[in-house]
């Protein structure tokens, strides 16, 4: 199972990430200390809660006092240091990538540990990786980020989780497999942000089909 210190590290990084997200609100939408703490808890603990619910396990984040304490403390620290972090944008991008990788790796490894096959285990890992951000967007009344054109958020998580699951199934120890998964996720996410990569927009695919059907573009038949 996941060591407590590793799980708490991911929760702390998620709390800091949530605080950095909250610090971007201005005017009537700005958040107070309680709001920042709630966002930090959601980001830091949301993915783990969803993961354990999918696996039919007692939520590990509610089995110890340290999860809530860590999430709240990290979010408040992140709020205090938000100005310094935002002056170094690469820190925010890197932190975001690592958080996705960690939650994805923990979700996939836990799913494999309870006996799930590769594909469902990868699914659980991806949900754990993006679950906190989805809950954050829902609570804040924002468009859910992973459902809109963006920088391969869930794709990066899926690639890393797949590397972990396949490596572990082939006999690689879970720790190096998890490290490899985190690295793959982080690299894809950072490259996607740096080079503004994303999946095709649905409307673009529709427009291309219409253009082909109306003769603007040639229809290529297999």
Can you tell me about this structure?
The structure is a single chain. The model is unreliable at 209-222 (pLDDT under 50). The radius of gyration is 19 Å and the shape is globular. It is built from 9 helices and no strands. It has one domain (4-212). The protein is 73% helix and 0% strand. Helix 2 (33-55) packs across helix 3 and helix 5 runs antiparallel to helix 8. With 222 residues, the chain is mainly alpha-helical. The termini are far apart.
Short description:
This protein is mainly alpha-helical. The protein is built from 9 helices and no strands.
Structural class based on helices, strands and sheet pairing: mainly alpha
Separate helix tally = 9
Order of helices and strands: HHHHHHHHH
- Report the uncertain regions: 209-222
Task: Produce the secondary structure layout.
Blueprint: H1 4-22, H2 33-55, H3 65-80, H4 82-86, H5 89-113, H6 118-140, H7 153-169, H8 174-194, H9 202-213
Helix pairs in contact: 1-2, 1-3, 1-5, 2-3, 2-5, 2-6, 5-6, 5-7, 5-8, 6-7, 7-8
Question: What distinguishing features does this structure have?
Answer:
222 residues; mainly alpha; globular; disordered C terminus
């Amino acid at each position: 199972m996941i060591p407590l210190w590793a799980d708490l590290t991911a929760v702390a990084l998620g709390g800091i990430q949530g605080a950095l997200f909250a610090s971007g609100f201005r005017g009537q939408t700005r958040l107070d200390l309680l709001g920042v703490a709630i966002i930090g808890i959601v980001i830091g603990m949301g993915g783990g809660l969803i993961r354990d619910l999918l696996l039919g396990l007692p939520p590990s984040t509610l089995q110890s006092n340290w999860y809530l304490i860590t999430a709240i403390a990290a979010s408040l620290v992140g709020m205090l240091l938000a100005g310094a972090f935002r002056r170094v944008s690469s820190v925010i991008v890197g932190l975001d990538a690592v958080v996705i990788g960690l939650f994805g790796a923990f979700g996939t490894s836990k799913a494999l540990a309870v006996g799930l096959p590769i594909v469902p285990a990868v699914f659980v890992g991806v949900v754990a990786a993006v679950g906190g951000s989805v809950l954050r967007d829902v609570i804040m009344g924002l468009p859910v980020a992973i459902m809109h054109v963006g920088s391969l958020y869930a794709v990066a998580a899926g690639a890393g989780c797949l590397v972990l699951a396949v490596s572990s199934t082939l006999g690689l120890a879970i720790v190096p497999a998890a490290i490899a998964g985190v690295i793959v996720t982080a690299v894809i996410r950072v490259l996607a942000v740096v080079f503004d990569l994303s999946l095709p927009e649905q409307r673009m695919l529709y427009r291309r089909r219409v253009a082909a059907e109306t003769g603007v573009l040639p229809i290529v038949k297999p």
